[in-house]
Amino acid sequence: MPNLNPLEPGVMFWAGRDEPAAIAALGVRCGQMGLAGDTPMTEASAEAWRAALDRHNLTVVTLFAAYDGERYDDIPTVQATVGFVPPATREARVRRTLALSDFAARLGVASVACHVGFIPADLSDPAHQRVLDDVRRVCDHCGALGQSFALETGQEPAAELLEFLHRASRPNLGINFDPANMILYGTGEPIAALRLLRPRLLSVHCKDGLWPDPAQPGALGREVPLGEGAVGIPDFVAALRETGFTGPLNVERETEDRSARYRDLASGVSLLRSLTNR
Ligand code: MG
Asked: β-strands 148-152, 111-114: how paired?
């Protein structure tokens, strides 16, 4: 496994959707790997992934869980379908996350992450306590394997998320900061949010986006190629450097169009290289 440079550009990619060869062809040595809800997590598949990542000299720093039935069409749909919040799928998704932690251990990956869903701000909402219990359960499982657990940001304002992290009271709990999500969900200026959440920062996505249209309540903003949105990527990278963050800068691009996605991942990596001299 190579030693990564501070702020080395990497890519957020998906097992099954992205081949390691295609990721390595972007010229990166690191990234984060997502597993969809139906991706096999057997011992044999862990061995196969380990060999494939080694062959392409790719270091995975985080495994991301996603779950069957999640949809990101607009804010009410996210609230109803994403993460640990929907009651009908809660237990199965927590168990899937624990299995993902075991899978990560087989791959030698020391951090696990997911969107836990919209955490209700109201502490008296039973769903708030349920998510808190679930997060602690995942943290304790990960902790026994020497892993951290990172919550993807965006669905809560930074101050609210920070309070939640304090309340959960687990030393291996932190965040995967996605600056675009703060914009897409309209939850706050990303760089101010980063500074507030910096003590709990485990990993980052480098993604860009445009604010939601205020005339369309419940609509999400639009994700765009890195550097073309409202994040201010040079300022974001400068803030990461200034606050002493040294982990990889993982470009994430969510468009379904494969050729556009790879083109934009490549240009994102190139933008980050120009900003970091890497
Ligand atoms: Mg993200």
From this structure: parallel
Residue among 59, 30, 7, 2 nearest 275 (CA): 7
Per-residue pLDDT 10s for the chain (278 aa) are 468 999 999 999 999 999 999 999 999 999 999 999 999 999 999 999 999 999 999 999 999 999 999 999 999 999 999 999 999 999 999 999 999 999 999 999 999 999 999 999 999 999 999 999 999 999 999 999 999 999 999 999 999 999 999 999 999 999 999 999 999 999 999 999 999 999 999 999 999 999 999 999 999 999 999 999 999 999 999 999 999 999 999 999 999 999 999 999 999 999 999 999 87
Kindly list the structural domains of the chain, giving each domain's residue range(s) and its CATH number in brackets, ordered by start.
Answer: 9-276 (3.20.20.150)
Ligand 1 centroid to residue 253 C-alpha, Å = 8
pTM of this prediction?
A: 0.97
Best CA proximity match to 60, nearest among 103, 17, 26, 11: 11
Residue 264 Cα to ligand 1 midpoint, Å, equals: 15
Q: How far is the CA of 133 from the centre of ligand 1 (A)?
A: 23
